[in-house]
Amino acid sequence: MNLIEQFDQLNLILFSLLSLGILGFVDEYFFHHKKDQILKRQECFRENILHIIRLFTFSLIFFFVSATNLEGLFCFIPLGLIALDLVVSILDIFEEKKSRAKMGGLSTAEYFIHMSLSFHLGILYFNYIPYFLKKISLSNEFVAVNIVQTSNLRIIVFSFSLFSLLYFFYQLRQLFHFKKLKHYAFGHK
Predict the structure, then answer these.
(1) pLDDT at residue number 182
(2) Interatomic CA distance for residues 11 and 3, integer angstroms
(3) Reduced to 3 states, what is the DSSP secondary structure of residue 12?
(4) Residues of the domain holding 175
(5) String of b and e for 164-176 (b: at least 16 CB within 10 Å)?
(6) pLDDT for 111-144, tens place per residue?
(7) Which residue among 11, 78, 94, 125 sits deepest, i.e. has the most Cβ atoms within 10 Å of its Cβ?
(8) Domain-located, residue 3
(9) Partners of residue 116 on adjacent β-strands
(10) Would residue 13 count as lying in a domain?
(11) In a domain, 4, yes or no
(12) Is 53 within 8 Å of 128 (Cβ atoms)?
C-alpha cells in the first residue's frame, strides 16, 4: 500500500480535526484568554457564548469521529454538529466586529490564525460531509471503537475530545464567574 492509499477519507478528517484542535486552542487560549482577556470583557459576553458553543460542538465532533463508527441515521449526529458549527461560525463573524470594536478589532496575528482555521475547516467540510453522507444509506449502526486497539491518530483526536470538553467546562465557569463579578460591580443582584 502506498502513502496516498494510506490517507483515506477518515484519516484526512482526523488530520483536519487535529489541525483545527491545535489552531483553535492557540486562538482560544493565547488570543482570547491571555492576550485580550475577552472572558473578562462585558462587551464580549455574546462572543464568548458563541465560542463556548463552538468548543462544546467540536468536543462532540472529535469524539464521534475518533471513538465511534456511525452508519445510517446515526450519521445525522455528526452532520448536525457540523451544521450547528457553521451557523455559530457565521454568528461569530458578525459578533466579533461588535465585541472587539473597543479593542480596535482583531490583531493581525489573530486574523492569520482565523484564516488558517478557515482553511482547515474547508478541508474538513470537503472530507467530512461526503464521508457521512455516503454512510447514511447503510443500515443503522452506532459502534464504539476500541480506542486502545486503534490508530494513533484516532487516539490523539480522542484525547483532544477529552481535553476540549474539560476546557469547555473551564471556559464556562470562567465566563460566568466574570459575568457575576461584573453584575456585582454595577450594583445588580
Answers:
(1) 59
(2) 12
(3) helix
(4) 18-185
(5) bbebbeebeeebe
(6) 999 999 999 999 999 999 999 999 999 999 999 9
(7) 78
(8) no
(9) none
(10) no
(11) no
(12) no
Q: Work out the burial of residue 102: count CB atoms within 10 Å of its CB; fewer than 13 is exposed, 13-18 middle, 19 or more buried.
A: exposed
AA identity, residue 121: L
Query: Does position 74 have pLDDT exceeding 80, yes or no?
Result: yes
The pLDDT mean for the chain works out to 86
In a domain, 7, yes or no: no
Please give the span between the terminal C-alpha atoms of the chain, in angstroms, as a whole number.
65
Residue 171 in grid coordinates = 471556559
The C-alpha cell that represents 128 in the structure block = 467530512
CA-CA-CA-CA torsion sign (132, 137, 140, 145): negative
- The reported pLDDT for the residue numbered 163 is 87
The pLDDT, as a whole number, for residue 154 is 86
Cell (9 digits) for 6:
494510506
114-144 exposure pattern, b = at least 16 Cβ within 10 A, e = fewer:
bebbeebbebbeebbeebbeebeeeeeeeee
Number of structural domains the chain divides into: 1
DSSP secondary structure letter of residue 138:
S
- One-letter amino acid for residue 141 of the chain: E
Locate 55 and state its grid cell.
468548543
pLDDT at 188: 43
